[in-house]
Every structure is written in structure tokens, then in C-alpha cells.
TrEMBL record, chains A, B:
Residues 6-120 form the NTF2 domain. SUPFAM superfamilies: NTF2-like (SSF54427). Keywords: Cytoplasm, Nucleus, Protein transport, Transport. Has a role in nuclear-cytoplasmic transport of proteins and mRNAs. Pfam families: NTF2. The keyword Glycoprotein does not apply. Gene3D superfamilies: 3.10.450.50. This is Nuclear transport factor 2. The gene is NTF2. It is found in: Cytoplasm; Nucleus.
Amino acid sequence: MDPDAVARAFVEHYYCTFDTNRAALGGLYQDNSMLSFEGAKTQGTAAISEKLTGLPFQQCQHNISTIDCQPSGLAGGVLVFVSGSLQLSGEQHALKFSQMFHLIPTAQGSFYVLNDIFRLNYA
Amino acid sequence: MDPDAVARAFVEHYYCTFDTNRAALGGLYQDNSMLSFEGAKTQGTAAISEKLTGLPFQQCQHNISTIDCQPSGLAGGVLVFVSGSLQLSGEQHALKFSQMFHLIPTAQGSFYVLNDIFRLNYA
């Protein structure tokens, strides 16, 4: 497994899904998954899916600036660190953000998100 | 173990050491540790210590804005996600940064840094 290839493919899939079909993001998490979104923690597929679909904006577009990744030490696990900007529909300025994911291999040969931490970078 | 307490104590110790005695940071890493600094990867105590002490600035001051943490799934491991700003001596403007650490318990009851990813957030 090439962690860089896993990270790039995941990042493309995640933000494309976020921007076009946010309700489908729930499928990337499992019941032991945790999301920290701007300091608010939620755990488990249902709660995370509810948090993401309930965010107070509809149309958005993520633009990715950097992707870093490292093996996490957990068998086959990959840490992915992303920076980029988030353009909300109707807003003049894009918001800068940083986000990290801890990806864990599944029995089906794919990955799920065990850890997800998101922060806006206020200028 | 309270991951929030571990994260806060680590962050305070790490950036205080960085700002006052950078050469001592090497003691926080082990030979399987990885550092990605602005996209450049190094591995192992010696290489990471050399990278950090060789950064092209001397006096600096980190100011921390946010600390997020989650259990990493690796026995006792903690993921720490930090945002803040870095003031370099003689520079007018502070640089915004984001950084993540994966902390692993040691046999001595402390933690070492297995994963470290650092990025400046360009405005």
C-alpha cells in the first residue's frame, strides 16, 4: 500500500462527496469514529452524519492546497493532513481550513475514518 | 488517562521547549518517528532533531489558538491537533500554522511523538 496514493484518493473522494452529496459522507465513518468540528466532538456514524448534514450552509466548494500523510502505526492506518479553502455559496471570501483524518483499512479492502478533526484558520 | 490533559500538557511542554531550547526536542521522538515539515519528510530521532535545530531562524515564539485531541485507537495513543501563530524575531507579522502530533505512551509512563505534521497557513 502506498500511503500517498491512499491519501490523495481519499481526499479527492471525501471533498467531492462533501460538495455534491454530503449525506453520503456517513458511509465513511463507523461507530467508533470521532469528529471534532470547530471544537465540538461527536462520535459514531449517525451522530457524525447528522452533524455534517446539519451544518448551516448548503452549497460549498472545497479547494485543496496541501496533502501530507504518514503511516499511523496502527496496522495499515494512514494519517492525512489537509489544508485548503472552503467557498460558501453567496459569500465573497473563501474560508481557510485545516483538517486531519486517521484512515483505517476495512475487511473489504477500503478505508474508514476513525478520527476527523476540522478547524477553520481565522486570518 | 484523560486525553485532553495529556494534550494540553504536551502542547505546553513542546512549544516552550521549541522556543527556549530547541535542541532538547529530539528527546520527544524515537527512531520510528516521522516529521513532515512544510512537506519535507524526515524519520528518526537524529534526523528530526537535525531538521528542527537547522530551521533558518533562531529566536521564535509560538502562540497557541486551539488544541483538539482524540484517542487514536493505538493503545493509549492520542492525536493532538494545534493551531496558532509563530512570531519570528525581527519579523513584523506572525505566521499562522497548524500542526498535528500522534503521541504514544512509553514504558516510563510518558509519551513520545510517533507522527508530527507541520504546515504554515498562508493567508
